[in-house]
Amino acid sequence: MASDSVHLPLITILHHSIIFLLLFKLPSCLSSNPTYSNCANLISCGQIRNIGFPFWGGNRPRECGHPLMELICENEISYITINDVKYQVLDANPDSHTLKITRQDYSIDLCQPNQASTSLNTQLYVYDSPYNNLSLSYGCTPSEFLPPNYIPCNRTSGETVYSQFGSLSPVSCKTSVVVPVPLSLQEIDSFFQVYRAIKEGFVVRWIIGVEECDKCEKSGGECGFEGPSQQTICYCRDVPCPNFSPDDTKAFPGTSDIG
Ligand SMILES: *[C@@H]1O[C@H](CO)[C@@H](O)[C@H](O)[C@H]1NC(C)=O
Ligand SMILES: *[C@@H]1O[C@H](CO)[C@@H](O)[C@H](O)[C@H]1NC(C)=O
């Protein structure tokens, strides 16, 4: 008798969860997955607290985040690399899905960039607020086509950085780096103003797996990524992830915790 009374609601809930899966197209759900407890690990580093999906790094394993979204913690500062440019993470907000980031190579000096322009991996991120592109050009030889604004960089060598709005690369310069700056930046011939605008950083919003993960977490699971196609996956305990509130979990006396 005791077993009947356990099985009946189980079947009902399984039945409901199948309907739920059909209705809401939940990401595929693994049962009895030992990774569950590890994907509950959140990343904290310096001012950045409790960051989970879609990021991984530190004690949060690789399969709990997107492969290109590792948060690296060095001396209590978080870093992320986007399209080969390393950024310091100034702020992270899981509720708004935003990161405030600033280029690491410009954190000390405007004159020695790693020579890659800022660009976003548009499958993963979008700009969260309006910005202007600013092009900083290096190794320029005198030419009538150089932009009118420049910043002295090294007074000994006379090296200058040419600055102009837009995503442009003067032909008489060796290299140009495009960076997003706030719309408030006006004086692009002032080293201090340009440096401060870049150092202040900009806000990006992550867009990968956001809806699927909300559904997964509401159903009691933990999100991760799986396989070569990098599908969002919902890691659960030893039941499929049905859409039940935390209170309903207690209706499973037989459910054993993993870990
Ligand atoms: C900034 O430059 C990039 C690359 O050229 C371009 O895709 C983007 O639309 C530009 N953004 C603005 C606000 O002009
Ligand atoms: C400035 O330029 C001079 C001459 O090229 C060089 O010796 C010096 O190291 C440079 N200083 C900096 C800070 O880059």
Percentage of residues in DSSP E strands:
25-35%
Number of strands: 15
What is the mean pLDDT? 81
Coarse structural class: alpha+beta
**Main sheet characteristics:** 6 strands, antiparallel
Overall outline: elongated
Strand order of the largest sheet: 4-5-6-7-13-8
Order of helices and strands: HEHEEEEEEEEEEEHEHEEH
Radius of gyration: 24 Å
Bound molecules: 2-acetamido-2-deoxy-beta-D-glucopyranose
Low-confidence stretches: 1-6, 18-28, 243-259
Give the helix proportion (percent range): 10-25%
Name the quaternary structure.
single chain
Distance between the termini: 31 Å
- Count of separate DSSP helical elements: 5
Please provide a written account of the structure:
- By secondary structure, this protein is of the alpha+beta class.
- The protein has a domain at 38-130 and 191-206.
- Helices cover 19% and strands 30% of the residues.
- The strands form 4 sheets. It has a 6-stranded antiparallel sheet with strand order 4-5-6-7-13-8, with helices on one face. Strands 10-11-9-12 form a 4-stranded antiparallel sheet, covered by helices on one side. A 3-stranded mixed sheet has the order 1-15-14.
- Strand 5 and strand 6 form a beta hairpin.
- It is elongated and about 75 Å long.
- It starts with a helix and ends in a 10-residue tail after the last helix.
- One 2-acetamido-2-deoxy-beta-D-glucopyranose binds at residues 154, 156-157.
